[in-house]
Write a structure and sequence with these properties.
7-stranded parallel β-sheet, homodimer, DNA-binding, alpha/beta
DNA sequence: TAAAAACATGCGGTTTTTTGCATTATTTAG
DNA sequence: CTAAATAATGCAAAAAACCGCATGTTTTTA
């Protein structure tokens, strides 16, 4: 087998599966490990793939590996935030959780909006505070350093005494069978009470999190009124949720 | 599974859910905890995520810092803050108000200090949150946008149920006849209750504010245990307060 | 055409990387 | 405080990478 043939084969494999193992290439083409190594070396030098210990990965795969953290899914979140904001009217009492999507929403709130926002998320509070016309109510309790949100019985009891018009939850995982699931026990408690204390429940999530599962159950899909993603409501992945009676924006 | 693949998966999870548990990563990819820990170690070293006990957090989510714009009287405030910190011991329950001096103190808290801080000041909460070893309890209520602190009956009631070891107040005006005075009605209510709920009351102020007067009365000098300024305790301006029975640092 | 040069490939030995395990701290939670 | 979970550390085995060199093969060129 000629050198060129080998390299073409390698590239095809890498583009097909996003990864190749040096080992399997040796066997596939019955050449020594050294030869494969040198092939990968060349392909790597010309930027056709990325060599790693044990094989190689496709260039595109590698780009996903290191997204610039600041802009990761930023545009998606902005789209979501804008859709969400359209649901808020003057005078409303709005309950929100934490999470990057909620923060993005807080940043994009129109200047003239006059409403009351209630949250335990410190980053969210900081954003709301910068807004000229909205009132901010902080749910007090002990801070969970991981999620930067107040958690505990006090916060939950406080939410109990509230009946908000609408509630925005950034969610970590949702699927049709299990509904919303999360990975933080304390946050789950909060979200459950927030859902109970709101007339309308709006879930915000980037589409990647749809049909994924986390350890703790928050609520079933029946509790969700609106689901917002960066996708068009006509997207196939969203249809099951529409069928389940959820308004999808 | 290749090392790079694993790390890609980890980053993806962390950027998606803001948090991952080492444990679930082990299971997901069927490798030992050690391998995961070393992966997290590397990703952490290159700043792709933040390693914590039991897993990792996303970098971007963790980076919320409050804008530190004020350099006015910075050195003075640092001197005051350092004196104040010397009064805090491990295990203490510390009640603090807001204000730039308190924020400065929050920033200078020694890393190994293990105490519980209770406050309604959002900038203070943000600083306390960044500290590795202290617990933060937020007093919830409506935010006063001018002072960036929660004010109202809820906050006051919550303080009532606390008996703190020590209380740090950044004060706006103090003189011998009227004691502490302030210019914000809501904040005055809070400070009064904080004083009642603390075994020891410490007042922080730059010397400019000594012997000045504001519209609302907070408390007399008899309620103050310690007064801290940037001046040497031997300074003439402070002598009347020492005579009044206040410890001056 | 024949020698020389350049290239490709594989082999043996060495070095580096990766990984899991055992043991010992450290941290966390009840 | 105590017990369980998690982290750090050193170690060892396996895998992979690397290096120099020998052996062919192809290309260049005199």
């Amino acid at each position: 087998m000629l050198k060129k043939e080998r390299q073409t084969y390698i590239l095809r494999q890498v583009n097909l599966h996003n990864k190749v193992l040096s080992n399997s290439l040796c066997k596939d083409m019955s050449v020594s490990e050294d030869t494969i190594r040198r092939d990968l070396q060349e392909l790597s030098e010309t930027g056709k793939l990325v060599k790693v210990h044990g094989g190689a990965l496709s260039q595109s795969f590698n780009k996903i590996t290191y997204p610039s953290t600041d802009t990761y899914a930023q545009t998606d979140k902005r789209i979501i935030a804008e859709k969400a904001i359209s649901l808020i009217n003057d005078g409303m009492f709005v309950l929100t959780g934490g999470g990057t999507t909620i923060i993005e929403m807080a940043r994009l709130l129109p200047t003239q909006l006059h409403a009351t926002f209630i949250t335990g998320s410190i980053p969210a509070v900081v954003e709301y505070m910068n807004h000229p016309a909205i009132d901010v109510i902080v749910l007090g309790d002990k801070i969970s350093k991981v999620s930067k949100i107040t958690v505990g019985a006090d916060a939950i009891n406080r939410i109990k005494s509230i009946k908000a018009d609408i509630c925005f939850l950034g969610i970590n995982a949702i699927d049709l069978q299990n509904g919303i699931t999360d990975n933080d026990w304390d946050v789950v408690q909060l979200k459950q009470q927030m859902i109970l204390s709101s007339q309308k429940v709006v879930c915000l999530t980037i589409s990647e999190k749809i049909n994924s599962l986390q350890p703790f159950h928050v609520c079933g899909t029946d509790k969700i009124d609106v689901l917002i993603t960066e996708l068009d409501p006509g997207d196939p992945i969203l249809q099951p949720y529409i069928s389940a009676g959820i308004t999808v924006l």
